[in-house]
Specification:
Length: 129
């Protein structure tokens, strides 16, 4: 009699997943952490004034840097702050977002680990060709 090993993957409503990784996930993953990520993103963006505010600060920094590097005149006077103050503010904002991104990556990684072995092989074969 031929012994057939059990399937190393499960077919779920969310696609095929690695059986061992799914068992590990079920024993250790708190799905509410993903909602927590959304809340922390909302809080971080609110503290920073939203993505539009960050974009505006980057544009302001560009204008100031362009005036310094290329000798152009900024369209608006920037007497309220110096270029290094604006740059420091943007860096702090980006660090806040980077911290959130690193946390999100760590929390989401176990879901990526659900890829079944046969799919890993398929992806490797595609990348090799």
């Amino acid at each position: 009699m031929i012994k057939i090993p059990p399937a190393s993957f499960h077919v779920t409503p969310c696609g095929e997943v690695d059986a061992a990784a799914l068992e590990k996930l079920r024993n250790s993953f708190d799905t509410s952490q993903l909602l927590g990520l959304v809340d922390r993103l909302d809080t971080s963006l609110a503290e920073l004034g939203g993505m539009i505010a960050i974009r505006d600060e980057l544009l302001k920094l560009h204008t100031m840097a362009q005036a310094l590097v290329e000798g152009t005149l900024p369209p608006v006077t920037t007497e309220e702050s110096s270029v290094w103050e604006v740059a420091e503010s943007v860096l702090l904002d980006l660090e806040t977002l980077s911290s959130w991104v690193r946390t999100a990556q760590m929390m989401i990684a176990p879901l990526v680990d659900l890829v079944p072995e046969h799919r890993v092989n398929e992806l490797s074969d595609r990348e090799g060709n």
